Each structure stands twice: as C-alpha cells, then as structure tokens.
Amino acid sequence: MIDWDDIRYFLAVARGGSVRAAAEQLGVNHSTVIRRVAQLEERLGAQMFEKLPSGYRLTDAGEDVLEFADQMKASSQQLETRVFGRDQGVRGLLRVTLPPFLATHLLMPDFAEFARLHPDIEMEVLSTGEVANLTNREADVAVRNVGDRKNLALNLHGLKGPEMYGGVYMSRDRLAAWRKGAKDPIRWIVVNDDELPDWVRKGEIRATGSPFKTPDAGAQIVAARQGIGMTRLPCFVGDADPSLTRVPGIDLHMYGTLWLLTQGETRKTKRVRLFTEFLSKKLANHSSLLAGLVARDR
Question: Do 261 and 141 form a contact (C-beta atoms < 8 A)?
C-alpha cells in the first residue's frame, strides 16, 4: 500500500524542482525528503526523477505518478473540507477543563445557560487541578489561571480574560467573637500545605495554634465556616459566602489572569467557537467579582 506521506514528498519535489525546495516547503531536512522519495520508488518499482545539474526532472514513470498524485491531493482536500464542514454543526462533544473553584463557585450557571442554548452539544466539564494537554486532545477548551503569558505553549490560541484576586477569610461569627475578647486559637487552614503562609503574620488578627490541613477545597471552606480559623480563598468564593468575611488588615493578592485556551484545528469547530465567545463575555461580566470589587460590607 502506498503511503500518502510519500506522495506528499514526491509532489513537493516535483513542484519545487529540487530536494532543497521540497525540504523548505515541508519544514524537514534534505535527508528526509530523499528517503521518502526513495521509499515511494521502491514500492512502485520505478525511478521517479532524474537528477540533473539544474535540479530534479520527472521521468516518464514520474509523470504518470504525478497525474494520480494530484488527484490524490485533491481528494484529500475534499475529504478534509467535508469532514470539517460536518463539524461546523452545533452538535457533538465539547470538553472543558478548569480548576474546581471556578467550576463550582462561579461558572456552572453559565455552563447551564450554554447547555440550554445548545441542547445538541454534549458537554463534559473536567473540574480538576491537573493541567490537561490540549495538543493531545485531552480537552477542547481550557480555562486557566496564568501568572505569566510567556509560560503558555506557543501552539495554544488564547483569549485573555479578567484578572483574579484572592483574600484571607474567616467566619463572621468567629471574627465577632475575637473582637469581644474570645481567646480560642485561630488556626490557619490550608489544603495539604506544610509551609507556614506569610499571611498568618499579617493583619489585625494573628493565626495561633496548630495548622488545620484539609484534603480539598470544599473541606477548606467548610472549616472556615465552622470558625476553626482563617484561610486564603479567591475573592469570588469568599465574598459570595455570607458566612465569611475578609480578615481585617490583609490586602488582596493577585492570583493571575484567566485565559480561555484552545489549540490547532479544534478551535475552528463551530461548537468551540460558540463556547469560547460565550464564555469570554461571561468572564468579562464577572470581572468585578474576580477582582474583589463587589465585596459585602467589610
């Protein structure tokens, strides 16, 4: 069976007139072009080119192959166009990966609205702290908090979203008790972190006692609500919880910037374009909440 890749190399040499021109067009080295053409000649049992001082010239056999190679190329392009056209329908699987906090505390109502608008799109929300590999198609769209744009892979296409800030929070009741002179320890609550965070030494309230470690973000919030101590949370989480309040005297800190990321041909499909355009607008609407500018009375 003839390898279509061998035909591509053959066509590049035939149209470019030399191995060098073909290598530059295909973005490979000379030896690769020579090897693939030789592989095609071996499969067909005929020589495709004559090597002349002026370049490569097709043999009679090469001329015959060129006609069919052009037909194969045209058929391949038609196939790609047809498949891509089918993928422009607003249906199919859409996989979105994002951190758990963003999924459960901010964007799930937006996902629900998108699902209602497009009932034929099968949505799979990958709520995880692990970074999915978009190049390997582990997800179609990623919502990531990025500290430095330079750290993103060059092959990713990104829509820049709003900046995300965080603060240190504790139970409102626990703060009221502290102001009345309660002596119970105010622990620092962290998710599986062995290091002493710098914020425990800042602000009007100092964390005391042993640390309180939780296995996940959900338990972290519940621990803060129960008055165990204080913990760091994104503003859109802490400010939206009526049982929590910011610890006085501690400034907000910036986590990074949210980006909507896609890769390669995936981003051109209609369902991905619809979703990224939709979510980009929603993130813009959430910018004040993400920046901690709509906090409750403090």
Answer: yes
Query: In sequence order, what are the beta bridge partners of 145?
Result: 258
Cα separations in angstroms, 164 against 14, 43, 92: 54, 59, 31
**Which of helix, strand or coil describes residue 231?**
strand
What is the rounded CA–CA span in Å between residue 17 and residue 22?
Answer: 8
C-alpha 263, offset from chain centre: 8
The torsion region of residue 246 among left (phi > 0), alpha (psi -120 to 50) and beta comes to: beta
Q: What are 51-64's pLDDT values in tens digits?
A: 888 888 999 998 98
Of 7, 9, 25, which Cα lies nearest the Cα of 65? 7
- Comparing 47-56, 95-104, 135-144, 288-297, the range with the smallest average pLDDT is 288-297
Tell me how far CA of residue 64 lies from CA of 14, 50, 56, 69, 126, in angstroms.
12, 14, 16, 9, 52
With cut-offs at 50, 70 and 90, classify the pLDDT of residue 172: very high
